[in-house]
Amino acid sequence: MVREAFRCRHCGLRVQPHRSNPGLRACLGYLDDLILIPMGIALAIRMVPPSVLAECRARAQEVMSHGKPVSRIAGAVIVLIWIALAALFAVWAYETFVSARASQ
Whole-model pTM? Predict the structure, then answer.
């Protein structure tokens, strides 16, 4: 229970919005990124029981021995999302800049 709480707390540090504040907090954020985050990751890995870690490493080796897992469908979905976003941006830019000048 303590292990899971530590991991959740440590991962939660990465998504807090206060990191974007300028000043001293930004310097402390860099210090945090350079020292505390790697130490926390190392501690979280040490908290995993050796048998579980060995099993996960064996499973990862087995998956990688068959070649990297590739999902072409997921890649295609991501590319389509980017194309749709680019098209939406192009329509917005056209309506905002070109149509506005034509109507004046």
Answer: 0.43
Alpha-carbon span 60 to 48, nearest angstrom: 16
Helix H, strand E, coil C: the string for the chain is: CHHHHHHHHHHHHHHCHHHHCCCHHHHHHHHHHHHHHHHHHHHHHHHCCHHHHHHHHHHHHHHHHCCCCCCHHHHHHHHHHHHHHHHHHHHHHHHHHHHHHHHC
Write out the two tokens for 3. 């292990």
Q: What is the mean pLDDT of each run of 10 residues along the chain (104 residues)?
A: 64 54 63 81 90 94 88 96 98 88 70
> Measured between alpha carbons, how far is residue 34 from residues 13, 30, 31, 47, 58 in Å?
14, 6, 5, 21, 30
